[in-house]
Specification:
- This protein has 177 residues and is mainly beta.
- It has a single domain, classed as Pnp Oxidase, Chain A (Roll).
- It contains 2 helices and 11 strands.
- The relative contact order is 0.20.
- The strands form 2 sheets. Strands 1, 2, 5, 6, 7, 8, 9, 10 and 11 form a 9-stranded antiparallel β-sheet that branches.
- It starts with 6 loop residues before the first strand and ends with a helix.
Length: 177
């Protein structure tokens, strides 16, 4: 903000999906990202008027991520390997507008990496002249979100990693355990 530039994100200009580094062309037109919901505990007792729920730092409920496919193809079955985690990467270009320059457009990269094993598969429908609308659902154990090369979120359930905005929220907890 020191230079007076006020930019804000407008839209995802374009994106691609990769499975373990290999581009999955034409797989999906839209992916709704899974929600993060913290594990909570109810706190009550002496000195507390009633009760409240507190989030347990670094712990999250099951993260179920559905990956839609226009058609069943080889990549679809590659995600159904129950003996190993799939690693999907979404790479997108975020279009920004700069208000201070009268609306100049720019873009930054956003990368989302997720790892998980399959928990379900929908083969969709077979209809002449139409899409199948199949999907594979992964149980995520890892999530990374980067914007313009900077790590904004990293969650690794299997390795006790939870970082937000560059701050390792599990560092002290991991040292104590």
């Amino acid at each position: 903000m020191a230079n007076g530039n006020i930019t804000f994100p407008e839209v995802i200009n374009n994106f691609n999906v990769y499975n373990s580094g290999n581009k999955m062309v034409g797989v999906s037109g839209e992916i709704s990202l899974a929600d993060l919901q913290a594990v909570t505990a109810e706190v009550s007792g002496a000195g507390i008027m009633g009760s409240y729920n507190t989030a347990v730092v670094g712990m999250f409920q099951s993260i179920s991520q559905e990956i839609p496919f226009r058609m069943v193809n080889k990549e679809f079955f590659g995600l159904m390997m129950a003996n190993k985690q799939a690693e999907l990467t979404l790479r997108s270009s975020v279009q920004n507008v700069n208000k201070s320059t009268g609306g100049t457009l720019s873009t930054v990269g956003m990368r989302i990496v997720m790892r998980g094993r399959p928990t379900s598969a929908k083969f969709g429908t077979v209809k002449m002249g139409d899409l199948m609308n199949a999907s594979v659902t992964l149980e995520q154990t890892y999530l990374l979100v980067e914007i313009d090369g900077e790590t904004m979120l990293e969650l690794d359930k299997l390795n006790s990693v939870y970082k937000v905005n560059g701050e390792d929220l599990m560092a002290e907890i991991n040292r104590q355990c």
